[in-house]
Amino acid sequence: MAKVKTERGIARYDAAILPHYHLHSSKTDRIEGSRDEKLDELIRSYFKNNKIKDFEIRDTHLQATGKFNK
Question: pLDDT tens across 28-41, in order?
Fold first, then answer.
């Protein structure tokens, strides 16, 4: 289980085990998970092809901040 925090320090525990990303509304602190296999592959491919010296990446986390229109 992973802990997801907002900019205001509000935390939520996420039980999702499949790769996913978080969409966070800075106005309402609403957080939703989103799956996107193309984005996941793009991130994996980027770090595979652009290695960071003396660092091995095991996992990545992405949180996009914006607003929900509904």
Answer: 888 888 999 999 99
| Residue 31 CB neighbour total at 10 angstroms | 18
User: Which phi and psi (to 5°) does residue 49 adopt?
Assistant: -90, -15
H/E stretch holding 64 reads strand 63-66
Predicted confidence (pLDDT) at residue 1 exceeds the cutoff of 60: no
Cα separation, 20 vs 51, whole angstroms? 22
Q: Report the distance separating Cα 2 and Cα 14, nearest Å.
A: 5
**Rounded Cα–Cα distance for residues 43 and 36 (Å):** 11
